[in-house]
Amino acid sequence: MVLATFSWPYGGRQVFITGTFTSWTRHYQMTPVDGSPGTFQSFIDLLPGYHQYRFLVDGIWRCDERQPRVSDGFGVVNNWLYIAEADVAAPTIQYEPYIIRTMDMDEGTALYTASSPSQAQLSETDIQASRSWISRLLSSHTVYDTLPMSSKVVIIDAQMPVKKAFQIMYEEGLFVVPIWDELRATVTGMLTASDFISILKGLQENVLVLAEEELDNYTVSAWKEIKFQQNSNGPVGMHRRPVIHASDQECLKDVALKIVRNEISSLPVFKSSSQDSCMPLLTLACLPGVLKYIFTHYREPITALPLLQHPICRIPLGTWLPETGRGNGRQLAMLGSNSPLSSALQLLLEGRISTIPIVDDSGSLVDIYSRSDILALAKGDMYAHIQPHQMTMHQALQQVYQANSYINGRRRCRTCFRSSTLHEVMEQLSDPAVRRLVIVDAISKRVEGIISLRDVLEFLLH
Question: Keyword annotations for this protein (predicted)?
Fold first, then answer.
């Protein structure tokens, strides 16, 4: 062991330090230095090797700009140091440049707000108090409160060729759209990315025997009829379950529970009363919209909820690898870059999951593949010219990058650590473009689990 000295010379009332040497789970309180106002120090025994660390200053995560820093490519910036054994030279560490966002008061870099590093165990009182507050909040607001001043809703005619419908979904960046039936003058269902996956699998397995010209004229309603018969094994015309929907006067809690319990991504919202013949569809309600609303209007009280101050590794939510000790019986699906696309299609449909982490040979995160990514194959009718069992996940991801014109040919994967607080996780998930976070090891980026917005709201509204 080597005794290392850490300093924070930029002031503050209370300063802690944590790092890879504690697996980011323990925080050492730093001591003010006599005769040097605003300076704090800690002395920690460390094993030889490479370490990352950061400071918690008055509840805000910081890093020291004057010390070496490393960006992990996922938006997290830490300081680093190398502890060498006798006569062993420290290696040269290459790190990517990043934009420094300094604060006026000092030279430290603010990363994000964090909770107090209390090691108190999660109590049932904390859980119930937080659940009760969120339940009351969501019960006191309706879907109408969340409607934007101006927006558009894309709908698909039931008689539109399904091939054209998927092209529209790709072009509009949508993975679920309402289906409008002109004869019934109402929304009769939803067309989703899962439907596209089902068609791809059907074509691959010769379940759908269609020539290319027939596929061009194959309507949305015809596809929904076949899918219904396949799922129900019933006769044509058999009674169907009404489309799951909400009225604009339903409270946000009830709408969120409908989405969670029915395992859907969104549902149509209709006017509670319509006196004219215009279409009553107002919008689509989704979990990101619910979370964004409460974080936009109630950020301060949410931050103070006791449950949200605990790290996610202490809270029973998400899907974890068994070796993390957080396994809950659910299997975390992962695929390698050389796995066939057909494996991903099967997992997304039969595993009832929405996202698959793609990892390298060591289990470190490379990217993710989601249901919505499959729509990239609608560009230029590529799905008609591929064999999913022959296309690798690496090739499928390249298609996603090209179809969506990601900068530098890649996109940013949203991640968190097991030490991330529930508040930090919810803060990221309040971005409508983010529906899940991959839990990774801070150093190796090995995947440890995944936590979705559905997991969070299902737990909070339990």
Answer: Kinase, Transferase
Give the separation between CA 262 and CA 319, rounded to whole angstroms: 19
Going by C-alpha positions, the residue among 204, 236, 194, 199 that lies closest to residue 218 is: 199
How far is Cα 156 from Cα 405, in angstroms, rounded to an integer? 25
Q: Is residue 103 part of a domain?
A: yes
How far apart are alpha carbons 350 and 362 in whole angstroms? Answer: 26
Q: Which tokens belong to 428? A: 């990221």
Spacing of C-alpha 355 from chain mean position:
9
Tens-digit pLDDT profile for residues 67-99: 888 765 556 788 888 777 644 343 333 333 333
pLDDT digits over 114-154, tens only? Answer: 444 444 567 788 788 888 889 988 999 998 888 877 778 88
User: Beta strand pairing status for 156-157 and 108-113?
Assistant: unpaired
* Whole-angstrom distance, CA of residue 41 vs CA of residue 460: 39
Residue 427 CA to residue 295 CA, distance in Å, equals 8
pTM above 0.85, yes or no: no
Judge if 213 and 92 occupy the same domain: no
> Is 264 within 8 Å of 244 (Cβ atoms)?
yes
Same domain, 332 and 447: yes
Length of the chain: 462
Domain that holds residue 242: 139-291
Please state, in angstroms and rounded to a whole number, the distance separating the CA atoms of residues 66 and 78: 12
Give the separation between CA 175 and CA 162, rounded to whole angstroms.
Answer: 14
Of 113, 148, 183, at which residue does a domain stop? Answer: 113
Residue 310 DSSP symbol: S
How far apart (Å, rounded) are the C-alpha atoms in residues 367 and 433? 16
Domain CATH for 260: 3.10.580.10
Within this chain, do residues 106 and 162 fall inside the same structural domain, yes or no?
Answer: no
Residues 6 or more apart whose Cβ sits within 8 Å of residue 30: 6, 8, 15, 16, 17, 40, 41, 42, 55
Q: CA torsion, points 399, 289, 77, 364, in degrees to nearest 10? A: -40
Please count the structural domains in the chain: 3
Question: 102 lies in a domain?
Answer: yes
